[in-house]
Structure formats: structure tokens, C-alpha cells
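[step 3/7] fold_predict: job queued, chain A
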Amino acid sequence: MKPTLDEGLLEAMVEAALRGGAIALDYFRPGAKTSARVDSKEGGSPVTEADHAVDAFLTKELRSALPQAGWLSEETIDDPDRLARDLVFIVDPIDGTRAFMSGDARWAVCVALVAQGQPVAGIIHLPALGQTFTAHRGGGAFLNKQKISVSPRASLTGGLIAGPAQMLRELATSGMDFRAEPRIPSLAYRLARVAEGSLDAGMASTNACDWDIAAADIILQEAGGGLIDPHGLPPIYNRPVTRHGLLGAAPGQLKDELTAILRRSLGREQD
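[step 4/7] structure written:
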């Protein structure tokens, strides 16, 4: 079944992300601790009542917009029924929960639609920054309705790169000359900044999940870049295991250079 990416569905996805962001914003306190109740998930990572409120809203709105689609969200108990669906919504109600909790504005509501394992539409909405990234297959990538594109750099040497501190330290130790961007708490936002060209590359350590990256993936593709693993291959979504290995984002012309960097990092992990 082919995805019905008509204007109405895309508008519904964007509107859901915007309204979900407004729900979260009610609990957000710039520069201060959130007003939301905070609990711990299995494994110890935090979750707030805002995460759950946004998740419940998105579930209702998006599943009403496209009832035949499956569902995968960080804050919803996984239903293996999604594996039998050609179309699946992949959602992170608040990407960057710790930032949200502490008053850091760099958190996002992420909504993606995946068809047969590949993203075909994505929204990354940052309510506290007033930024909304959108893209759909073949339609280009946009920030606040203005078209965006990746950096035109011909080499990552001297470029601005964001990623986990350990990966950046290893990159510096290897002798590469680059500029390191200070930590960006939302992975989706880190990747979106590559799509808009304000970063030349972004990296993600092992264990990023579908909901962290699916929306950013299509935005990157439509902006002229891509998300790849150490073999130069794109992620596949909606599989039984939702976690991924090392990943990197860069403009299309820098794919080979980034692949080599990721391959070296993978080699160090396996040593």
C-alpha cells in the first residue's frame, strides 16, 4: 500500500505536532525546573507527565487522521501489530526530556510517517525556540515554511560537528581538524541543524531509537543530506528491534568522508 501523503494528511501531522508542543509548553519553565511531575522509567531514564500528555494527544489525533497506520512511540507500550502495517507513525512526544525538565529550550516534539521501513514525512517542532522543521518525500525540507538545505562544504576538515563528547574526543585524537559544537540535548534537533546547514555533520552513538531519528531522517534527505551507518547505509525503521548502532548525518557530498569516520569509531568500539 502506498502512503497517502495528501495535503490534508500532512497538515494534520503538522497541526498535531504544534498542538502537542503547546501542551508540553504549559509545563516548561525557561531556565528553571519543569512544573510537571517527574517519574523514572525502567532503566532509570526520566519521564514527565508532559511526555504522557503529549503522547496521549498525538495518539488520538494522528490515529484519527490515518486509522490504517500502525503506531510506535517512546511513551506507548509497543504493540507488535505495527510490524504487519505498511504505514506506521513513529513519535517522540518530547525528545530531550532532561533539557525540558531543566529549562533548556532545546527539546522537540517529533512525528514521522514511515512506509515500508522508510520515512516519507517528518516534523520536528521546537516550541520553546519557535522552530518547526517539516519535510515529505519529494517536497523539500523547510524551517518555519522557508526552504532549507545542507552545508555546501566540500570537506569535513575545518567543519562544525556535533555529537557525543566521547566521539568528538576520539575524532580530535585521530588528528582531524574540526570545530566542535557544544552539546545539543535533543538528537532530533542536532540532526535537523545539519539539514538547515548550521552544522556540517552530526553524530549519534549506539542505541538511538526509531523515534529519535525517523523525522530527522526525511528532513535531512529532502535538504540534500542523509543519515547513514558505518557501512554508508540508511537506517531501516519499524523492525522488531527499534535501536540502532552508530549513525551520522552530513550533506550528500560528504557521505563517503563521514562513513570513514563512523567506520573508525565502530572499530574502536569493537576493540
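[step 5/7] annotate
The chain has seven helices and 14 strands.
Residues 7-25 form the longest helix (19 residues).
exit 0
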